[in-house]
Structures are given as C-alpha cells and as structure tokens.
Design goal:
Helices cover about 55% and strands about 10% of the residues. By secondary structure, the protein is α/β, with parallel strands linked by helices. It has a five-stranded mixed β-sheet, with helices on both faces. A four-stranded mixed β-sheet has the order 5-8-7-6. Strands 1-2 form a two-stranded antiparallel sheet. The radius of gyration is 26 Å and the shape is globular. The relative contact order is 0.09.
Length: about 625
C-alpha cells in the first residue's frame, strides 16, 4: 500500500471536513489570461491570481467570496511545540529523568495553578501570563511571536498528563527545578503524544478516509477541552438532584438527598458549602493549596467540613492507585482519561490540601458524579431502579427548559411525550417533546446517556460506535416515528387541521454532553443514511445539543433576540453548520444573551442555602 497516497487522502478528507471545498464553489479558472492590465507578483514575471484572497483566522487563504463567515478550521487551536522553543526533540526518557529529580509539590503547584488560570481566564490571557512568567530572553520573545501569530501554549490535557506522571515518578523530598525547565515539560509531552497518535489504527475507517484512531482522538480532544458553565451546573444541580426528587421522591428508594446522605455520610448542604467556599476563593485569585484550618472558617463545624471534603478527596497513595487502575481497566488512555482526578479533584498532600482543577471540582459536586456516590452503595435491584429514576429526573429537567422555550401565543404549542402517546397510541415510538412553530415542528428526544469510557479515553472505536448508535440512530427512529404521525394526522394531537408544507427539525438533547464536530456529524449522517431515517425532503438535518445549549436558546427566546426555530433553521446553511449550537450562536451569530430568569433564580440558590446554613445573620450573598 502506498503510504504517501494514503496520507494525501487523509489530509484531503480533513481539509474537506474543516474548510469545505472552495475550489468547487468558485466556478471558473483561478488563473487569468496574460493581459496588460493584470498585475504580476512582486519581483517576478509570474502573474497574480485573478481572484482576491483573504486569510482566515486559522491562517488558511481562501477566495474572498468564501471568507464571509467562520469555518470549523477557524476554531482549531495550533499549539506551540517544544522543538520550536528549544530547537531540540524531547523524549520520554528525558521527561522521566527530569521528573525523578523534581519535587512533587512543585509540579502539583505548577499544574494546579495553570489549570485554575485556564478555568477562570481567556486562553490568550493564560498564554500571555504563562510566557511572561516562565520564559526569559530569546525563548520568551520566540514564544510571544508565535502567540501573536495565533498559536496557543497552555493545554489542560498536557497539564493533567504532567500531573499524573509526577504523581507516579516524582519524589516528595527532591529539590525544585528551574521554572523554565518545568514549563517546557507540557510542550514536550504534547509533542510526544502527538507523534504517537499519528499511527493509523488497523481496522475500520470511519470518516471520509480518516483513520479511526484520529477520529477517536478528535472526539476525546473536544470532550476534554469543553469549558464548563458554572451557573448552568449549579442551576441544574439544584433542580435535578434537589428540588425535583424532593417534589417526587422514588416510591421505594426515597429522595436523592436522603440516599446521598446515607451513602456518603454528609449532606448536600455541607458538600455545597465546601465546594463553593473553595471555588469562590480560587476565583478571587487564591492559590490552589489550602490548609486544614481554612475549613474551620467557612461556617460549618470543622469536622463536618472535613467530612464533606473527604467525599471528593483522597491521599497521594490512593490517587496513584486510582491512576494505575484506570490505565489497566482501559488498556491505555493515559493521554485522555482523567477519571481519577474527576472522582478526586482534591488531594490530601503531606502538608496541604491541593485543588487539582477547579473545573473538575464543580463537575464533581454539581454534575453527574453524585449519582455514582449513591449508585455504588445500592443492591442490584435498587441500582436498576435508581438508574431509571435518575434518568427520568434528568429528562424532566430538560423538558422544563423546553417548556420554558415553547411559544406562548396562539394556544398550545408545547406537547409532551404523554400528549403524543395520547394522540397516537401507546404502542408507537414517540419523541419526548414537540414544539409547534407554525411553519415547522421541532421534534425532540432526550438522552441522559454519558459517553462510554473508551470514547472519552480514545481507547475503543467500538465504544464510539455504540455511543453514536444509542445517541443518534436509536433516537432518530423515535423522532422519525413522531414526524410520521404529525405528517399523517396532525389534528389528532393539536385538534385542528395541519398547515401544509411544514418542515420538521429533529433534535436530540444529550443532557450529559456530546462532542459535535465535522467528524461526528459526518459519522451520524452516514449512519442515518444507512438506516434510511430522517432522510425525507421536509426534514432538516439532525441537531444534537446539550442542556447548556438548550438554556442558551431559552435565554434568546426570553429576551426576544431570536427563536429556537430561527436558530435551527439557519444553522444548516452556516459556516459552522457541523459545529456545536453554542459555537454557531456565539461565534457566527455573535449573540451573548443574559441568562434566563428561570436559570438565574436556580443557580443562586446554592449560595443562598450556604448563607442560611453557614452565615444566617449575614445579608444575601447575591
């Protein structure tokens, strides 16, 4: 097999996915015939191209007629490499030698500091600070020059990998090393991992000639680097794990709060107070190292605060064991899997309490992981009951947001799964919700499925396929069934005759997130074509959104800026058609609405609960 031709095909496939096909869109020849009035390239007798070109933010030159909007490639970050700053190559033995002679505390201080800055600051701010703090002289000037050209230097993945390596290799009593030496290690790690990931995986090729190994890496990359919306996380936690279960506790198991307290020995209130106290201090610029005494001054008895901290923390030896166990269970995944840090974002070091990553702290306390705290303590039958119950709670929260989005004028416009079953029978597959926008229907199904570990860690192409089948293909069939019912007999649901020539917009809400990209979108399109589902002319392309994006739509609707239908109808024709909805709204449309009043009320409740529990005599915090 000709490896050169294979590489050329892979690069061409990447180019089409990321930048489109400008040559086919422009028509006519790029080169013009020689003529007196035509200009030549400076210093040569070569005639200039006849079409004016513009440079995209990514650095790619394209015809001006195609440069009006952003393309997926403009969202791709290119990192500064170790070789560019040092002029030499880095090897794994080099990194191991340095770490074996480096103080563990110094590395933990370094990685936690820059992960915190990445959480709280814009990428350009973090990069500038990293270069100014860690480099001097010619190396600093070189790094700054590369950054001005659009390159980035701080990558959370490389900081996490460095932290894992340090936990496994660094002694606790070694001397500190120069800051510049330590700051170069993440760049060397990135370069080495990049070289390793260039090897093609033997087996199925998924997307336009692109190897499965590269597709897996891109999925893991996007999942890993997704920034967290803290307000959304706090609001969703309040409603999903606290309010809805208290309003509708499980008939056999009881409420989520009681189950959680029985499982871990602390209350949600206590865990909230500890997490908010830590995060607020770090947001205000506090270092990521805390003393035990800090937890005696946050409004809880110190013993209760430390008990809550124990739920999300572990010792250095236990964390090392968790890192090794994770690697062994996955059969690899060292580059992408951070499940040990996700479970234990706080480390009890010898003389300090270290917050490895404030983003992971918020996800640990206010995300999906409290479910696993409870789930791991239940008997087999109870586990099935609890899993189904948690799924229904998550679906209910998403449905509440959809209900808030629904048009309010001209009668009923929002229809639930119960409405659809009542109209079309309980034996048919139906979606979870449908919104009537007059000229179109938005048909929505909700998935509470999380990406499988092999998908997150880029260790299993089979896990990626399972995720896509469950999230897209299975849900697409339910949406198609609902569309068929609406198309054939809309009046059974609405009570009035249907409007002719309506369009249908299929949407899957992935409540726990999904990495939408040109690659995953192409995979889903291929799968749906093979299934013959959602292929009719009156059906728009399937859109996959997470709950945070749904809340963004809610804000646009409430503020009168745009509508759900308008956003979804415009996206397939946009430059970022195959990117996440949030990117289309913020980057292509340039819309940044304030949070909805519903979410604004919810995300402040943990702060108010903290005030009432810990500081009852103080004024409201927000």
């Amino acid at each position: 097999m000709d490896s050169g031709k294979d590489l050329q095909r892979e690069l061409e496939g990447l180019r089409r996915l990321l930048a489109g096909d400008p040559a086919s869109a422009v028509g006519g020849d790029y080169l013009v015939q020689p003529a007196k009035e035509k200009s030549l390239l400076t210093g040569s007798a070569v005639q200039a191209l006849g079409i004016p070109y513009s440079q995209r933010p990514s650095g790619l030159f394209v015809p001006q007629s195609l440069a009006s909007g952003p393309a997926p490639i403009d969202l791709v970050a290119t990192y500064i490499t170790y070789q560019e700053l040092t002029g030499t190559d880095c090897t794994w033995p080099d990194i191991a030698t340095i770490l074996k002679a480096t103080n563990l505390g110094q590395v933990l201080e370094f990685t936690s500091k820059w992960l915190a800055k990445w959480t709280f600051e814009e990428q350009s701010q973090v990069d500038s600070s990293y270069i100014e703090t860690n480099f001097r002289g010619a190396r600093q000037r070189s790094a700054s020059s590369l950054m001005r050209d659009g390159r980035v230097i701080v990558a959370p993945q490389m900081l996490h990998v460095l932290c894992k390596l340090a936990l496994l290799l660094c002694p606790g009593d070694a001397d500190r090393i120069p800051d510049e030496t330590l700051a170069l290690l993440p760049l060397g790690i990135g370069e080495l991992l990049g070289n390793e990931n260039r090897q093609d995986e033997v087996g199925e090729v998924h997307v336009n000639g692109i190897p499965a190994s590269l597709t897996q890496e891109l999925i893991s990359n996007q999942h890993f680097n997704q920034r967290i919306d803290v307000a959304s996380a706090l609001g969703r936690f309040t409603r999903r794990w606290r309010e809805i279960p208290n309003e509708s506790p499980h008939a056999d198991l009881g409420s989520m709060e009681d189950l959680f307290t029985a499982a871990v020995g602390v209350t949600f209130d206590e865990l909230e107070i500890v997490a908010i106290a830590i995060y607020s201090c770090m947001l205000g610029g506090a270092p990521s190292f805390f003393s035990e005494d800090f937890f005696g001054g946050i409004g809880l008895p110190k013993g209760r605060a430390l008990a809550a901290l124990n739920v999300i923390s572990c010792s250095l030896p236990k964390l090392r064991e968790a890192i090794v166990a994770d690697f062994n269970e996955l059969g690899g995944g060292f580059a992408w899997s951070i499940s040990a840090f996700e479970r234990f974002p706080v480390i009890w070091a010898e003389d300090a309490i270290v917050i490895t990553d404030p983003k992971l702290l918020i996800s640990r306390v206010f995300g999906w992981l409290p479910f696993f705290d409870v789930y791991s303590t239940l008997a087999k039958k109870q586990k099935g009951q609890f899993r189904d119950y948690a799924g229904r709670i998550s679906e209910k929260y998403a449905t509440e947001v959809i209900s808030s989005i629904a048009p309010q004028a001209l009668g009923k416009r929002f229809y639930t799964e119960d409405d659809l079953r009542a109209a079309y029978g309980s034996n048919l597959k139906v979606a979870d919700a449908a919104l009537d926008y007059g000229d179109c229907w938005i048909v929505i199904d909700i998935s509470t499925r999380q990406l499988m570990r092999g998908s997150v860690a880029a260790t299993s192409a089979e896990d990626v396929k399972k995720d896509l089948d469950a999230l897209a293909v299975k849900k697409a069939h339910q949406i198609q069934s609902t569309i068929n019912c609406l198309r054939d007999n809309e009046s059974a649901l609405t009570g009035h005759d249907g409007i002719p020539n309506r369009r249908f917009i299929p949407v899957v809400i992935a409540s726990e997130g999904f990495p939408v990209s040109p690659f995953t979108t192409s995979m889903i399109e291929d799968a749906l074509r093979n299934e013959g589902v959602l292929q009719d002319q009156d059906i728009d392309p399937l859109q996959i959104m997470d709950t945070t994006e749904l809340e963004l739509i809610e804000a646009l609707e409430e503020k009168g800026i745009s509508t759900f239908a308008k956003v979804l109808r415009g996206k397939p024709q946009a430059g970022l058609a195959r990117m996440p909805v949030r990117d289309y709204i913020s980057i292509e449309l340039g819309l940044f609405p304030e949070r909805s009043s519903r979410l604004n009320g919810l995300w402040k409740k943990p702060f108010e609960r903290m005030r009432l529990k810990a500081f009852p005599d103080e004024e409201p915090l927000l």
